[in-house]
Protein: mitogen-activated protein kinase kinase
Amino acid sequence: MNRGGLCPNPICLPPLEQSISKFLTQSGTFKDGDLRVNKDGIQIVSQSEPGAPPPIEPLDNQLSLADLEVIKVIGKGCSGNVQLVKHKLTQQFFALKVIQLNTEESTCRAISQELRINLSSQCPYLVSCYQSFYHNGLVSIILEFMDGGSLADLLKKVEKVPENMLAAICKRLILSWAHTPICLQRELAGVCTVTRAISGAWDWFLLECATGKFPYIPPEHKKGWSSVYELVDAIVENPPPCAPSHLFSPEFCSFISQCVQKEPRDRKSAQELLEHKFVNMFEDSDMNLSAYFTDAGSLIPPLANY
Structure:
């Protein structure tokens, strides 16, 4: 050292930011080749998938609630809410359904039934379940995030859905039902028999998509139903709704008629409905259900915003 305590030929180091910037991703991960390190841990990423860890698969036992970053609430119900969440490492988006468990046996059984269906019904026509947790009185279910919104969202934008698209939607609904185990189908059939008048069945909603109106219209002197009990009374006392024959094809009218029967024994099975002419009459046409939803426009902002 010289008298001033300084090195006669000091080494000029580049600023720290310039030295490490090429190793840091925008999300704050330190990356070098196949190595990834961030606040959630360290991982070696396969060279066959450069730049990102492998995506999370349904029922992945390595997935935990701590891996998720809450973006915002996207839905609310009487028993809980649904949040849009993002996996910190893979950047995948999911829907996190959080349910407050109470002491009522009926609530516990309903949640148990939903969890069983999620475990046993992984098919392309159903929303995928990635994992479920219970902690401190809360049941958390990590589900596939459907960024196109719901049929109810679609109906707000298009008002009515054409028959060919309804046929495609019906086929997927029926196929999803067919993928549900028989034992759960029987449980669901029993539940639907009791609650269809209150919650509305999918066949009623199908008719609403076609006509743009709820199948049961209140009397002319009323703006709406005064209570759910009044609506139930109207459903019980009146014949099942039907599709106007002058507006729709005979095939659609027949399909609706077979679906809306009040007595469960009078309704067709999933297999019988799959063979109905309406469900299959547009199979040979140039129909793209995905493009139809895209063209209608999603009510949900692009995920890139998050």
